[in-house]
């Protein structure tokens, strides 16, 4: 395969090729860097306040990460194809309000229906994005900026000033966020499944490799016979559906849903993806890196509260982190480029 | 690129030089006397004037999708109906100061008779409110006051003293006879209402009755559900011996109660403060919360509408000591600085909460 | 991106005309059918409402024409507003603070420009980062507080009108800056070089245009203008707050794209952008006077944004089909 650029997928670098192996290692260090940063942060905070490592605290952090990680998974896939989905925050709001209204009107509906409804709402929203990008030939940034307004506007017009309160929602829906399976909260379990399945798809399946190829060189991917249209629609539908799922999780976790739910989330999600090592120009990065990015951003937030550092620093730190992350990516890319050139020279 | 930093340096230094030169003899904070208030020459009040019908009364809450504001403005709607006026409700989707200004401007254009507004920022709305008053529109503030010199009257939900004392009293009841550590989960660090209540509460805590209570931290959830939720988490992690969280804001108390009810702290940490019965019902019934308080928000909107109508009809001008009748609520007297106090807060418990629906 | 030159030129004029006609139509219909829309006071309010968007859109147009983007503008605005309040509390004179704030904005632009042109990082990612960074710093400077006691002669000037007539003072500023930016963009070699960079940066580089330097200075100017708007915003609401202008970046980008500027760079005109800003503001104002909620406007803004790119694409495609069919018919014959 000459078209699917291998630098995107670190795992399959042939062992015999030192240059590629080094490239793979470099990429590995990219995710390792986040893990390291996370470890240092947790260690420092835990020394200051050991309760940061208590069961309840770890559980809280994982619960808070779950929603962001689910959305980051979809966003990572879209960004890898050299596109972007800015409408995810609005899709979350639309789905959360739809599902909350539905559940408050039909108290007996099982949880699985709520999840499916959220996925469906999100998938439809994502499909519209995908169709406009692919067949309308409108850039993804423009389409999803537009639908960011449109989906939010629809939610606002529909909800008016109204709000769904916790006491209107069925009990089983609310307890879902806190119930456990084998000691792991459902919310976290769902996030783990989503991130795991996403990583597997992008790493080990043909469609995943095709998505990387599309991001590396859209024109070449088309010429190589990849079904670009189908894959692109799929990526947007996935991102939308996962934002819809995040909406259900949001409603279950927070209990109170109004039309502003998830307002401004798109920037957090993009930040998580970028910090997690997915390049905005597509073709590189991993889903689980994006999920790690989400975890890091969440832990920073709660560590600041525990360390009693002025909360106002949080946003500034996140901003600095994003810039640091893209600088690191740039460095990695330059070094890989150099090593690849060297290899080509030998051949 | 090579030359640009140097050019930039020269531009910057030139600008700084200009700035430095003008620094001598400019307008500074100290020399500044703000003479921009649009005080009107108020006509004399005629207490016997009849209430006019068909008055256009517009409500502008802090933001639209806030259940608390909805209840307040709902009360206003009832009052405007009784007054046979035209009711209007407008407002921004976000509680930002600047977005309210555009709505005030629109209301001026539409020539309303009364604007009833809850200010997101006491000063940012001032120029516009004064333009409204110059256009003979009466301005009543409720919920959150604007600067004194840009409104005609302020409906105060309860006296600051009364609420602060009530918060301290509820905290002591919840902590029990042994006392212990308490924390406050407030709205934003610059929220006028919350800050003044917390001040009074702190003074109360200095009294010997409250010697066993120790206020360890005032945290801020910014009246944002998720932020308040996370701040509640942070409090419990930082202060393992915490007995009570006092949240003098409806968003904060609901978020704190939701967190406690779903965590291992349930039953060990009490939540109290100011909350809406509908939002809190679930947590009162599952025993996370045993007591909280609030005034009736619908009455605030109701009283504001009557005060506005009385003013537009010439019964009152906003001066201290003037009296007017506010429908079912009875007679009110305007206090110092144009303040009208609604009355004492109601306390809600498991026994009485089902009698309230707001 | 790979369109031929005449094609994009005709498309550009097409959308420019459509948006201008649409704007005029909205203004005329609103003046006749919406009560109080055509009054001089409403005109003042409208000018004040469009002031921040239109000023920031001027350099933003140039940046997008070169194929880059600056999402940090609203946060720069917030940071300068915070700094303005903080400096005022330190006892500096307002005459010192105002130029200082413009410089602070420019420094924010320098940071963006350096990261993008100096290190070669993608502008979208960089400015999303600085969006969070500058807004965060704004909160660090002023916290959640507000500074409000700015001198009346300055706050009054921003909200006032010339000789208490119908023309707002700030309109002079808007017109002056719009004329300067318009001339630079459309009547100078520098302006033309922006289009060359946007169409093909590499080709522009080899034809002797200093691509990196040009982009760097565009970011500095963008920051400085955002700083100036931060000052004007603070004075208009006489309230310095860290959250001032939050979310404005999307409104500005929407207005620029609505005005017919391509997000891929290389095409678009300033008059089109100005029409786009006026259209959005007038619609918003008219709908509000008609008691239509701002929520409905979200839908209108979003749809217009998508349509602004979609419609020209569709017409091109239809025209292309028609052309091909004619060729085929000719060949068959």
TrEMBL record, chain C:
InterPro entries assigned: ABC_transp_permease
Membrane topology: Multi-pass membrane protein
Membrane-spanning intervals of the chain: 12-33, 45-64, 97-121, 166-184, 216-235, 247-265, 270-287, 299-318
Localization in the cell: Cell membrane
Organism: Paractinoplanes ovalisporus
Record protein name field: Autoinducer 2 import system permease protein LsrD
Keywords associated with the record: Cell inner membrane, Cell membrane, Membrane, Transmembrane, Transmembrane helix, Transport
Superkingdom field: Bacteria
């Amino acid at each position: 395969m000459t078209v699917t650029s291998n630098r995107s997928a670190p795992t399959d670098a042939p062992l015999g090729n030192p240059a590629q192996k080094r490239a793979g290692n470099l990429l590995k260090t990219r995710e390792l860097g986040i893990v390291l940063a996370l470890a240092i942060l947790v260690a420092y905070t835990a020394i200051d306040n050991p309760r940061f490592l208590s069961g309840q605290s770890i559980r809280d952090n994982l619960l808070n990460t779950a929603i962001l990680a689910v959305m980051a998974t979809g966003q990572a896939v879209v960004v890898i194809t050299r596109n972007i989905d800015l409408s995810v925050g609005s899709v979350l709001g639309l789905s959360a309000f739809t599902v909350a209204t539905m559940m408050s009107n039909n108290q007996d509906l099982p949880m699985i229906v709520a999840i499916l409804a959220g996925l469906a709402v999100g998938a439809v929203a994502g499909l519209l994005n995908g169709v406009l990008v692919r067949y309308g030939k409108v850039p993804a940034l423009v389409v999803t900026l537009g639908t960011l307004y449109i989906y939010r506007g629809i939610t606002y017009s529909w909800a008016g000033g109204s709000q769904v309160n916790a006491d209107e929602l069925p009990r089983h829906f609310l307890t879902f966020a806190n119930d456990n399976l084998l000691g792991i909260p459902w919310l976290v379990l769902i996030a783990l499944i989503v991130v795991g399945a996403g990583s597997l798809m992008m790493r080990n399946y043909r469609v995943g490799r095709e998505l990387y190829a599309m991001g590396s060189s859209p024109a070449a991917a088309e010429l190589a016979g990849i079904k670009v249209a189908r894959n692109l629609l799929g990526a947007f539908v996935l991102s939308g559906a996962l934002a819809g799922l995040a909406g259900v999780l949001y409603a279950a976790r927070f209990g109170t849903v109004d039309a502003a739910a998830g307002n401004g989330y798109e920037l957090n999600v993009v930040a998580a993806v970028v910090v997690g090592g997915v390049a905005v120009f597509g073709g590189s990065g991993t889903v689980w890196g994006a999920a790690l990015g989400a975890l890091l951003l969440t832990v920073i937030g709660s560590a600041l509260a525990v360390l009693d550092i002025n909360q106002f620093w949080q946003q500034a730190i996140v901003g600095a982190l994003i810039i640091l992350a893209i600088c690191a990516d740039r460095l990695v890319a330059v070094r890989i480029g150099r090593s690849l050139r060297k290899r080509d020279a030998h051949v | 690129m090579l030359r640009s930093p140097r050019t930039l340096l020269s531009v910057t230094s030139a600008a700084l030089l200009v700035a430095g030169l003008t620094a001598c003899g400019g307008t500074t904070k100290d020399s500044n006397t703000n003479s921009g208030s649009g005080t009107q020459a108020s006509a004399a009040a005629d207490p016997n004037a009849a209430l006019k019908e068909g008055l256009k009364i517009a409500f502008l809450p802090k933001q639209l999708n806030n259940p608390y504001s909805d209840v307040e403005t709902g009360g206003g709607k009832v009052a405007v109906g009784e007054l046979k006026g035209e009711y209007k409700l407008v407002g921004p989707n976000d509680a930002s100061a600047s977005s309210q200004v555009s709505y005030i401007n629109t209301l001026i254009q539409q020539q309303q008779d009364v604007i009833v507004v809850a200010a997101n920022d006491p000063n940012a709305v001032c120029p516009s409110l004064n333009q409204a008053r110059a256009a003979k529109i009466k301005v009543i503030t409720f919920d959150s006051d604007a600067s004194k010199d840009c409104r005609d009257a302020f409906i105060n939900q309860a006296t600051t003293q009364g609420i602060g004392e009530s918060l301290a009293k509820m905290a002591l009841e919840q902590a029990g006879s042994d006392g212990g550590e308490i924390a406050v989960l407030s709205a934003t660090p610059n929220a006028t209402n919350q800050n003044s209540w917390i001040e009074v509460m702190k003074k109360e805590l200095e009294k010997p009755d409250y010697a066993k209570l120790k206020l360890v931290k005032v945290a801020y959830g910014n009246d944002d559900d998720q932020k308040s939720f996370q701040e509640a988490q942070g409090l419990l992690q930082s202060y393992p011996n915490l007995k009570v969280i006092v949240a003098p804001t409806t968003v904060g108390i609901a978020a704190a109660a939701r967190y406690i009810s779903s965590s291992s702290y349930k039953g060990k940490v009490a939540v109290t403060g100011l909350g809406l019965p509908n939002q809190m019902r679930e947590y009162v019934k599952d025993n996370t919360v045993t007591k909280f308080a609030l005034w009736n928000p619908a009455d605030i909107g109701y009283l504001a509408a009557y005060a506005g109508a009385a003013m537009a009809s010439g019964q009152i001008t906003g001066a201290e000591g003037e009296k007017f009748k506010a429908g079912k609520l009875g007679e009110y007297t305007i206090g110092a600085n144009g303040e009208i106090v609604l009355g004492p807060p109601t306390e809600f418990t498991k026994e009485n909460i089902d009698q309230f629906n707001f | 991106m790979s369109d031929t030159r005449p094609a994009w030129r005709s498309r550009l004029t097409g959308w420019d005309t459509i948006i201008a006609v649409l704007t005029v139509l909205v203004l005329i219909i609103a003046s006749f059918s919406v009560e109080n829309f055509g009054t001089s006071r409403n005109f003042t309010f409208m000018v004040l409402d469009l002031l921040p968007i239109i000023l920031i859109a001027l350099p933003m147009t140039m940046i997008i024409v070169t194929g880059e983007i600056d999402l940090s503008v609203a946060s720069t605005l917030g940071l300068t507003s915070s700094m303005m309040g903080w400096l005022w509390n330190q006892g500096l004179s307002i005459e010192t603070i105002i130029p200082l704030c413009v410089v602070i904005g420019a420094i924010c632009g320098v940071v963006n420009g350096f990261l993008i042109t100096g290190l070669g990082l993608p502008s979208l990612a960089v400015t999303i980062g600085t969006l969070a960074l500058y807004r965060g710093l704004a909160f660090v400077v002023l916290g959640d507080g507000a500074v409000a006691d700015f001198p009346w002669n300055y706050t009054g000037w921003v909200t006032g009108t010339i000789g208490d007539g119908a023309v707002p003072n700030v309109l002079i500023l808007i017109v002056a800056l719009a004329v300067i930016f318009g001339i630079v963009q459309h009547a100078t070699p520098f302006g033309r070089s922006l289009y060359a960079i946007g169409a093909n940066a590499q080709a522009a580089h080899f034809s002797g245009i200093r691509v990196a330097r040009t982009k760097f200075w565009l970011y500095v100017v963008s920051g400085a203008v955002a700083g100036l708007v931060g000052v004007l915003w603070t004075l208009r609401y006489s309230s310095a707050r860290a959250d001032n202008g939050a979310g404005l970046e999307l409104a500005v980008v929407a207005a620029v794209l609505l005005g017919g500027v391509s997000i891929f760079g290389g095409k678009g005109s300033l008059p089109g952008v100005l029409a786009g800003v006026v259209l959005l503001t007038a619609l918003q104002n008219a709908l509000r006077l008609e008691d239509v909620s701002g929520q409905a406007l979200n839908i209108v803004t979003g749809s217009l944004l998508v349509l602004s790119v979609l419609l020209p694409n569709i017409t091109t495609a239809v025209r292309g089909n028609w052309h091909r069919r004619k060729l085929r018919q000719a060949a068959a014959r």
